Write the structure tokens for this entry.
Amino acid sequence: PAPPPPPPSNDPVITTFQAGSSTVACNTQSPQSFPAYVSFTWATAKAATVYFGVDTNDASTGALFDNLPHSGTSQANFPAGYNDFQYGCPAASHNYTLTVIGTNGKKVSKTVTVTNIGDTQ
């Protein structure tokens, strides 16, 4: 007889991590009078802790927010005052990273890049 299949993995998984837009349009020369905002959605499985970071490849070591729910949105689940997440103008781009640590201690990250496409009037 064939051997039994291996048990299912206990490793954490990021099933979805998306920015509401991959681009923003903001002033590249001086502070923005009208800020640009970015929204995020995510879903994970087998996660014990969920972290969000900016311009890091590992949000667990450079977390802007931690202890986020396993699935959520920036509008509903970021701390008060950050629900409309402000893009850091005048930067050319920012990397946003979701890092999860599983109940088994393993870590996985996913990064999305949002690019500034230029000045607005």
